[in-house]
Amino acid sequence: MKNFFYPIFLLVLLGSIFLSSSSSLAQVGIPQVGDSIALTVYPNQPGPNQRFEVQAESFSVNLDTIKITWVVNGKVVASGVGVKSITATTGALGTNTSVLMSAATPVGDISKTISIQSASIHLSWEGITYVPSFYKGMPLPVSEGAVKITAFPDITKGGVKISDSTLVYTWKVNGNVISDASGYGKSSFTYVYPKISRPATIEVSATPSDQAIAAVASVTISPNDPKIVIYEENPILGLLTNRAIGPSFLLTDEESRFVGVPYFFSAKKRSDPLMSYQWRVGGNAVLGSMDDPSAIVLRPEKGVSGNAEVSLEASQTNKILQGARTIFTIAFGPQRN
């Protein structure tokens, strides 16, 4: 069995919000036809340097029959009859992108403007599960276990970055707002997977108190399976973590000590009272070491050769879905070529 390694993920997800929306008529006394034209941005919260589309819609004006002109940051980018949408690109982080739509309707010229300010959120997450100190990867979440997600917003106003602690956060799981986890300064959220676990989509929005700017990010996190890995423990060198045992091991010393190390259980440590270990040799249940039930000492019988299957089952007694099993074969005595 080979050692496994999971890299640490840093998820970068981006978002923004419209700073303003306005409409106007060129003629005095004309009803506010501009209010009947709506501008919609796709995606609704584009990030820095990201392509986006703006669409004009109306239930009272036939946009297919009138001339529409689009201006982005003071430059005409499209004009013509029935031009109901454009694509453009946002600016760098913290900059505004202004989009102006003007239309010549039978009752007068109208215009509508929106302003988009780019903002971003970086999301990082890790499972609240046990991993040994020598493991260089990230703790992974499991069924009935928890995962902690932390948001790192990058929102500027007037060229100054707004402090993360002064933002209002709204957390959602699979589209549902988690009210208890949302609020002022709540930049992190802990989600606990149920017994029947499926991938969870976690979304967060961050905005200052005036709600003039916002950033949104989401990530889908799947529960993993706990693992149990066996290592040999050398009386001088200690636990030989550079090589996991399996699928076979030649027992050449008078005795060898093996230790089962759990990964991704909700327990806080290997010797946690909630952890249970069951060893079997040749199909027969055997007790682990007196000082450590996750360890076992195997001694070959003199003058006897052969092989036997060794297995270890690890489980967490208060989490019925958190369990793992591993098997290897030991060979002992003189071996035939």
Notable characteristics:
Immunoglobulin-like; 26 strands; 337 residues; 7-stranded antiparallel sheet; 55% strand; disordered N terminus; 5-stranded antiparallel sheet
Structure in words:
This protein is an all-beta fold and 337 residues long. The protein folds into three domains: 14-118, Sandwich (Immunoglobulin-like); 119-221, Immunoglobulins (Immunoglobulin-like); 227-332, Immunoglobulin-like (Sandwich). Helix content is 0%, strand content 55%. It has strands at residues 10-25, 37-42, 51-58, 67-72, 75-81, 85-89, 96-105, 108-127, 146-154, 156-157, 160-161, 168-173, 176-177, 183-184, 188-192, 200-207, 215-221, 227-234, 238-244, 248-251, 256-263, 275-281, 284-286, 295-298, 306-316, 319-332. The strands form six sheets. Strands 1, 4, 5, 7, 8, 9 and 15 form a seven-stranded antiparallel beta sheet that branches. Strand 4 (67-72) and strand 5 form a beta hairpin. It is elongated. It starts with 9 loop residues before the first strand and ends in a 5-residue tail after the last strand.
